[in-house]
């Protein structure tokens, strides 16, 4: 199936590794990176693993002016017996192609992309931390490189994978976060780029995130850009509510990201026969559920934190505490189940995990 | 007022210059560029004019992942007597700061930015073409450079100016373009980044532009993202309609760009006592005006083409021809007046033009 010819150039000097308790998310990178180039008419070529190093671009490269760039985020886990596990990497590659289509960027070969990733992980395997809660964060991304100031799709691109060892998201075990419901700024609307993983969506979110930071909230909850009342998603997580025994999450409406953790949580809940529905959810419904004591739990889902219980929402000055600000039972159970599958300490009934160098 | 210390390093070898009739917009660049660096706590520093060359960034630089980047577009004109003219450059610097604020990027000193631009133009003055309709296109831009994968504002930035000699926009004189009214994709909504000049807005527009290209239309006309019926702007132009003797343009509503050509056209029309209003304009109103023979003229406004008469709109399969597909009288008059002021062949009653190295 695969005929990818990856050129490997090893770095001459290895970098020192930080102790896992000193790792700051996304600041330390491994010794190598993967690169492939694309030129219209020629396609993808020059697939290579090279020492991690700066990249050089023309000042007129499309990425700087017209923003054609997409990315993915995923993790590799190392277990005691030396097995490396990836969680649904096929889904990331598929979503990368969905994003590429929206941004008029070239498709990647999903099998080749996985092969390239496996090769890079092999080269930098010693960088995967082993301590509980730690992992290797993987960032595949594609940028437009044509040196041309014109609003049209670039004719050349670079695809890269860089990797960063990350410490435990929860230093003292899983604990709830505080979320600010945003009512001034809008992240995306249907017809826009909200369901693609592209830089512009994040750039536009910073202004609201700054307010949240200042007021002691960890992330923003976005409302829809049209009626400003339906719940979309959190900064970098999808969101779930347990209301009166039923789990509810906003339906994929074209403006939110089709999260891989989100879809896995839905499958897990169905597997457990916990009622779960995808539909429109308004902030008024959440306020009402809170008022009548029916808002049992709330949590965000995403690759970084896996499950992030939500203990408090603030919406236009009003505070809604969830489960007395404590981690709910279902949130904790989902966290344990999903991280257990990811790390290989629990059975994987769905075939989600890809195991590398298994004996 | 100014104390900017600009270090100048001249290039050792000058590039060959293309004849103006061979210039393709945004592909040829002058011999030098301007750069300044910003670091949180230290501010802007190391202002320099250096030989035009590629730039080097960490693969984890914020610009590649979270898209903090803004830009401006302006032109310098050279007249027979050696005077270089800039058109309302203060407005570009002001808009750059507006964009910077929306994207959580640092403010620039508008006077310093202008001083830097003048210095760069001095160094590369021989690159400004002189032929009718030609000019030097100027692209100031700012990118986020911090090597950190985290959704938060970068702590370091680079501000640059690059310049490109451009040929006449209209090879055979001003002529009308065909515009496709977009009804599937959305460019921006209020609360988003539509009124900032940032890369993400353009990245998200490419998909619709591709359809327009394929079907023989030069640009897309965006409708509002909420009701999908109010007119916003064209791909890289604001838009005006002359309906029954009155000129109408969509009001600044938070999701369209506050175009410098747009505001100059409004001032010119007022100066001429031509009735002009900024308000909501629906596509149905345009259809109706067309049906009743009241759609006298339509044109786009922007730095690249100055005035671009519109001869045809297509909206959901329906065609609206404007002025029999020919350039309207007012469009032509506005084009002549504005380009005359820009090139110094006509009086500038508004004080819009900044003249450099005037004897
Ligand atoms: C905007 C946004 N929504 C949701 C998610 C969650 O997606 P996933 O579960 O695939 O990590 C992320 C993070 O990846 C995100 O950036
Ligand atoms: C989206 C958009 N609207 C409008 C304009 C026109 O603005 P200006 O007249 O300042 O060039 C531009 C181009 O600069 C643009 O990119």
From TrEMBL, chains A, B:
Catalytic class of the enzyme: transferase
A Gene Ontology molecular function term of the record: L-isoleucine-2-oxoglutarate transaminase activity
Keywords, ordered alphabetically: Amino-acid biosynthesis, Aminotransferase, Branched-chain amino acid biosynthesis, Pyridoxal phosphate, Transferase
Cofactor(s) this protein requires: pyridoxal 5'-phosphate
Pathway in which this enzyme or protein is active: Amino-acid biosynthesis; L-isoleucine biosynthesis; L-isoleucine from 2-oxobutanoate: step 4/4; Amino-acid biosynthesis; L-valine biosynthesis; L-valine from pyruvate: step 4/4; Amino-acid biosynthesis; L-leucine biosynthesis; L-leucine from 3-methyl-2-oxobutanoate: step 4/4
InterPro entries, per the entry: Aminotrans_IV, Aminotrans_IV_CS, Aminotransferase-like, B_amino_transII, BCAT-like_C, BCAT-like_N, BCAT_family
Record NCBIfam families: ilvE_II (TIGR01123), PRK13357.1 (NF009897)
Keyword Amino-acid biosynthesis: yes
E.C. designation(s): 2.6.1.42
Family under the similarity heading: Belongs to the class-IV pyridoxal-phosphate-dependent aminotransferase family.
GO biological process, one term: L-valine biosynthetic process
Name of the protein in question: Branched-chain-amino-acid aminotransferase
N6-(pyridoxal phosphate)lysine, modified sites: 197
Gene3D superfamilies for this protein: 3.30.470.10, D-amino Acid Aminotransferase, subunit A, domain 2
Reaction(s) this enzyme catalyzes, per UniProt: L-isoleucine + 2-oxoglutarate = (S)-3-methyl-2-oxopentanoate + L-glutamate; L-valine + 2-oxoglutarate = 3-methyl-2-oxobutanoate + L-glutamate; L-leucine + 2-oxoglutarate = 4-methyl-2-oxopentanoate + L-glutamate
Organism whose genome encodes this protein: Psychrobacillus insolitus
């Amino acid at each position: 199936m695969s005929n990818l010819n990856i050129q490997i150039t090893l770095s001459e000097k290895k970098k020192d590794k930080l102790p896992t308790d000193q790792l700051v998310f996304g600041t330390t990178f491994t010794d190598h990176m993967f690169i492939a180039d694309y030129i219209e008419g020629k396609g993808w070529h020059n697939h290579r693993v090279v020492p991690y190093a700066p990249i050089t671009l023309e000042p007129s490269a499309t990425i700087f002016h017209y923003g054609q760039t997409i990315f993915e985020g995923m993790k590799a886990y190392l277990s005691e017996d030396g097995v490396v596990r990836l969680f649904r990497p096929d889904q990331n590659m598929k979503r990368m192609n969905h994003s590429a289509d929206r941004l008029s960027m070239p498709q990647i070969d999903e099998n080749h992309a996985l092969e390239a990733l496996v090769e890079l992980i092999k080269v930098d395997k010693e960088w995967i931390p082993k301590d509980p809660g730690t992992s290797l964060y993987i960032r595949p991304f594609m940028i437009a490189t044509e040196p041309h100031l014109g609003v049209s799709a670039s004719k050349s691109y670079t695809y890269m994978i860089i990797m960063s060892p990350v410490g435990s998201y929860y230093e003292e075990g899983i604990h709830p976060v505080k979320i600010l419901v945003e009512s001034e700024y809008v992240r995306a609307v249907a017809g826009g780029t909200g369901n693609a993983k592209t830089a512009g969506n994040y750039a536009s979110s910073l202004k609201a995130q700054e307010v949240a930071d200042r007021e002691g909230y960890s992330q923003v909850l976005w409302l829809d850009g049209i009626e400003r009342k339906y719940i979309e998603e959190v900064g970098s997580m999808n969101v779930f509510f347990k209301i009166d025994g039923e789990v509810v999450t906003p339906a994929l409406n074209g403006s939110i990201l089709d999260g891989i953790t989100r879809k896995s949580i839905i499958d897990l809940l169905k597997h457990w026969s916990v009622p779960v529905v995808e539909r429109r959810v308004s902030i008024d419904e959440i306020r009402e559920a809170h008022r009548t004591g029916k808002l049992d739990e709330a949590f965000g889902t995403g690759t970084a934190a896996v499950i992030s219980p939500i203990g408090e929402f603030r919406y236009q000055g009003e505070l809604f505490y969830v489960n007395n600000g404590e981690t709910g039972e279902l949130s904790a159970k989902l966290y344990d189940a999903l991280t257990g599958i990811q790390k290989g300490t629990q059975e994987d009934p769905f075939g989600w995990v890809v195991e590398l160098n298994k004996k």
